[in-house]
Amino acid sequence: MTTITFIHPDKSSQTVDAADGDSLMLAALTHGVDGIVAECGGNAVCATCHVYVDDAWAAKLDPVSDDEDALLDGTAAERLPNSRLSCQVKVQPSLAGLVVRIPDKQS
Ligand code: FES
Question: Edge-to-edge strand order for the sheet containing 98-101?
Answer without folding.
Answer: 13-18, 2-7, 98-101, 50-53, 83-85
